Amino acid sequence: MLDATGAAQALSEIGYLLRQDPKEKFRAQAFSSASWAIALERYDLEALRKDGRLDVIPGVGAGIAKVLTELLETGTSRYLDRLREQTGQPRRDDESSIDLSHYRGDIHSHTKWSDGRATMLDMARAAQKLGYRYLGITDHSPRIKVVNGLGPERLAAQAKELAEVQSELPDLALLQGIEVDILEDGSLDLPDAVLELLDVVIASPHVKLRQEAPAMTERMMRAVSNPHVDVIGHPTGRRPGSREGASYDVELVFKAAAKNGVALEIDCDPARMDLSPEHARLAAECGCLFSLDADAHAPPEFAYVPMAAWMAERAGIPEGRILNFLELDELTAALR
Ligand SMILES: [Zn+2]
Ligand SMILES: [Zn+2]
How far is 125 from 293, CA to CA, in rounded Å? Predict the structure, then answer.
């Protein structure tokens, strides 16, 4: 029996595959919104199907209701299978199977300290409600002014708030981190002395993504070689359907990441899906570790993880290679 998460993932994958075709932009968005609504609200889909009321779900019209009905009745979708064939991504035998009840926490999230839309307390409460054991608070670094990034002083102030929030939520471990910008030359937007105080360091490319491939390769190689970096966030900066993302020698960078124990993020935001399933498969073959994060800027966005976990499955990545499936003590050891 396909549960709400399984249905959400199938609709999310359809939305993703449709995004490859600019003409299908709106249909793609409809599938993604329906997926998000289902992942968030965990509807009793079977009851809605029996009553012919699947269209009470936001974003679900006749077309999506038909796909959902087939998914619920057969566990598969001919429409999804056809899209996979058409986009050259047929189902493969070596896909993995991920049980999200083993997912222990998200390590990439934002709060009002930078460009998030909720307070740290609200984000932490939402994570605890989902049963998470830990949450990484990783706001932006100072470089990008529009997101109100944090320098050393504001990070120190944030640490105080984090301690207060932590005392209210004893069952959830808050990890103080940063999403630090990878600058043009591959150096990071905060000094080592600051980075080494943090529990988790996610280094992400945000600007100047159109650098020539050799320079971009050098930039990313430098980032994965920094001993303070734990994770490379959304490794290409792409936006499926609208922005291609940085191009560089991914194999060289992924191999260096594997060697240095730096994880590559699968950013589950439907607007990002970065790594892509193809890059995730290459990274898996290079021996990389992964993190599977929502990059949430508000509590409802935590549902991006159950929507997008199919990417890791299609890439054949087992749970054991994904940081978020570690228990807290194992995670803190992995983050050094
Ligand atoms: Zn980012
Ligand atoms: Zn982020």
Answer: 17
The 10s digit of each residue's pLDDT in 12-65 is: 999 999 998 989 999 999 999 999 999 999 999 999 999 999 999 998 999 999
* Distance from the alpha carbon of residue 195 to the mean position of ligand 1, in angstroms: 17
Nearest ligand to the CA atom of 181: 1
Q: Ligand 2 center to residue 109 CA distance, Å?
A: 6
DSSP string across 291-324 = EEE--BSSGGGGGHHHHHTHHHHHTT--GGGBGG
Give helix then strand counts, H and E, for the chain: 14, 7
CA of 139 to the centre of ligand 2 (A): 7
Distance between Cα 180 and ligand 1 center (Å): 9
Query: 209-259 pLDDT, tens per residue?
Result: 999 999 999 999 999 999 999 999 999 999 988 888 999 999 999 999 999
Domains and CATH numbers, the chain: 4-86 (1.10.150.110), 100-334 (3.20.20.140)
CA of 235 to the centre of ligand 1 (A): 9
Measure 201 CA to ligand 1 centroid, in angstroms.
12
Question: Does position 145 have pLDDT exceeding 90, yes or no?
Answer: no
Total-model pTM: 0.96
Return the amino acid letter for 331: L
State in Å: Cα 204 to ligand 1 middle.
6
